[in-house]
Amino acid sequence: MTSMSPGPVYESELTWLSTRELAARIAAGELSAREALADHLARVDSVDPAINAIVTRDDERAYERAARADAWYARGDRLGPLHGVPLTHKESTDTAGLRTTRGSPLLVDNVPTRDALIIARLRAAGVVTTGKSNVPEFTAGSHTFNPVFGTTVNPYDRTKSASGSSGGAAAAIAAGIQASGDGSDMGGSLRTPGSFNNIVGLRPSNGRIPHALPADPWTWLAQPGCLARTVADVALLMAAVCGPAVGAPLSIQEPGSVFERPEFSDPGRHEPGSGLAGLRVGFSTDLGGLIPVERVVSEVVDSVAGTFAAAGARVDDVLPDLTDADEVFRVDRALDFARDYREIVRNHRDRVKDAVVWNTELGLALTVDEILAAEEARVCLLASTEDFFSHHDLLVLTTSQVAPFDATLEYPGQIDGTPMRDYLEWMRAATIISATGCPAVSVPAGFTPGGLPVGVQLVAAPGRDVELLLAAQAFEELTGHHARRPAF
Q1: On the CB side of 453, how many CA atoms lie within 13 Å of its CA?
Q2: 35: buried, middle or exposed (CB in 10 Å: 19+, 13-18, 0-12)?
Q3: pTM higher than 0.85 for the full model?
Q4: Catalytic residue chosen out of the listed positions 32, 133, 184, 189
């Protein structure tokens, strides 16, 4: 774990701007892309030694990209919505010409030749790529540490975890390095870092940001998505990266422009919280008794029901039947691990962390009966959530069962006296929702008495991503928890 470098912390008038504000200044000619980049890198130099969020830098080529962006502006060329905005990307996501190690010593020299779809679309929107943010080894687990780059810690308390697997991105956003970024989420890897770092993390519906060839276009459990300090910035990135793609048969056919709503671009046009009035909300802190929740977390989340009710939502304790979700998640995750890592585990078992070996071998050992039973359970789960959303607009739940924990641990060993049997057990508040296929977003909900962030998880019916973000923004505006920054 690193400590803070000596000397003053760099902070400027740009540090806490939203991505929308930064892009608007560049588009208006008030700020050049090179000036924005210099400010971004100065902030990295200043605060990243304390948190270890940014693990690969590409300064020289970033300045070349920024110079090209300024030249486009000078010529009067049409600008993308993120023109000139500096951004690091999640380390495990393929970036052409920039190493992608997935936190494994086996891949330290891996340099992809093409961008993943989400990266290609961000660059097409004008983003200036500056580097990569840290992840757990092979993105396994919701705590960001690996033998290549070490541990990323939490900007709100640098003895605590920043979560994962998008933990480096979340910590960078919380620390003022950038206002938003890309990530991915299989078992909470956007939502739990959102909760731990007091930012917004959205896991979209399957097909919203499509899985496209040459990747597996049929996969569904892991989803690319976005993080930001505000819901409006998440919507801005979603507008840039969403939409159907060639070689992606499960694409949602709506374009990214469905996220270009006036409520996101001009939130002051309506009364804070008014978007919650009339919503039909099912609420539970412990998912109807399915999960243990740390008391300092439950105290924060419990209060959210009253916030929704006071804003005019109709809140009850009705939930879909989620009892099949654990089976669906664990079987499908194990199959995904077997598909992705079987050769690595077979050939390099002693150089891969135990959790990856265990989860991969779990997938390889599955029987046909177990796989078919999980598929049948998934049908039951879909039927249950479909029924719930026929008479509710939102499901409001805990994002993480624990507050940020000691960064020297691999994962919490127990929650409220309940032992955790493996590295997945403590993440069930998120993994259960992953199994439903519903879009879900974590929004800042408050802080523990010790000053650690706590998020609340909002869930909507598949395909209702825009409506989900509108409700999340209404809650954000009403509470203002996102405005509390870490101290450096």
Answers
A1: 36
A2: middle
A3: yes
A4: 189
Which letter, b or e, does each residue of 20-34 get, where b requires 16 or more Cβ atoms within 10 Å of its Cβ? bebbebbbeeebbbb
Residue 6 has a pLDDT of 52
Domain region containing 414: 19-483
Burial (CB < 10 A; 0-12, 13-18, 19+), residue 471, is buried
Catalytic residue among 133, 161, 165, 195: 165
For residues 411 and 421, is the Cβ–Cβ distance under 8 A? Answer: no
pLDDT tens column, 427-445: 999 999 999 999 999 999 9
| pLDDT score at 5 | 47
Rounded to 10°, the helix 465-479/231-241 angle is 160
Would residue 189 show up in a list of annotated catalytic residues for this protein?
A: yes
Contacts of 409 (CB under 8 A, 6+ apart): 143, 161
DSSP 483: G
Tokens standing for residue 303: 């209060």
Please give the Cα distance from 28 to 278 (Å, whole number): 39
CATH (domain of 337): 3.90.1300.10
Does residue 216 lie within any of the structural domains? Answer: yes
Task: Return the closest-CA partner of residue 2 out of 41, 42, 48, 43.
Answer: 48
Active-site residue, 90 included: yes
Nearest residue to 144 (alpha-carbon basis) of 153, 131, 132: 153
The rounded distance, in Å, linking the Cα atoms of 169 and 452 is 18
User: Has residue 454 been placed in a domain?
Assistant: yes
Per the domain annotation, does 223 fall within a domain?
yes
What SS3 state is found at 57? strand
State whether residue 92 is helix, strand or coil. Answer: coil
| Total count of domains within the chain | 1
Q: What is the mean pLDDT of residues 122-130?
A: 98
469 vs 249: CA distance, rounded Å: 25
Residue 13 lies in a domain: no
CB–CB of 125/240 below 8 Å? yes
Please say whether the dihedral angle defined by the alpha carbons of residues 261, 95, 34 and 36, taken in this order, is positive or negative: positive
Q: Is residue 1 scored above 50 in pLDDT?
A: no
**Hey, what amino acid is at 110?**
N
Tokens of 42: 């100065």
How far apart (Å, rounded) are the C-alpha atoms in residues 114 and 140?
23
